[in-house]
Amino acid sequence: MPTKHSKRYHNAVKVADLTKDYALKEAVEILTKFPKAKFDETVELSFRLGVDATSGEQNVRGTTPLPNGSGKKIRVIVFTDDAPKALAAGADEAGLTDLMKKVSDGWLDFDVAIATTEAMKQVRTLARVLGPKGLMPNPKSGTVTDDIPAGIKAVKAGRVEFKMDKTANIGVGVGKRSFTPAQILENAAAVLEAVGKSKPATFKGSQFIKGVSISSSMSPAVKIASTEFSKF
After folding, report:
1. 25, 214 in Cβ contact below 8 A?
2. Could you say which DSSP state residue 12 is in?
3. Contact 113, 137 (CB under 8 A)
4. pLDDT at 175 over 70
5. How far apart are CA 106 and CA 141, in angstroms?
6. Burial bucket for residue 139 (CB in 10 Å: 0-12, 13-18, 19+)
7. Torsion of CA 185, 230, 46, 144, to 10 degrees
8. Run of H or E including 161
């Protein structure tokens, strides 16, 4: 039975041949010509990796600043004994014992959790709550730090975290449809470079990044040519 496509998909294929691969710049230009939704869609870069997803030594994760920000208001909480300092630096909520209890009781209305090194000794007990949501503070992602003002500033300015899922795929937001093509391109290039450089030392395969595509919340994906990531 032939696959049924939405009206939005059929309008998109009038813009470009979605079976082809495109240079990143051209793919971004195509994406910005697709019909828009009634809200400001998130633009995402999707990666298919060649690592062994069952090997802990080949887990891929990291962070990178977006040159033009994410276009999203980032809600940040900080686990710390010095809540006034964290709140003054821009945290949406801060504290330790009371904040931990609030989270433990099911409150997860935030995007990023930061913790001081000392606070992490207690925050580790929230791993079962925060871990599955990708919200657990982690030194590798810069969210375990004793420089709380700098940590908050980096996150609020548009630093994004990426983490491979159980099927060796990664999805990273690189902006909004309201961004200019140049802004999306610059952000996407930064993410592509960051993921490419996160190749595990134990990876011995021939192709770390097997495929990349770019899409927005309501659009079909545009495939990126392998020449854009084959160097990784």
Report:
1. no
2. H
3. yes
4. yes
5. 23
6. exposed
7. -90
8. strand 159-163
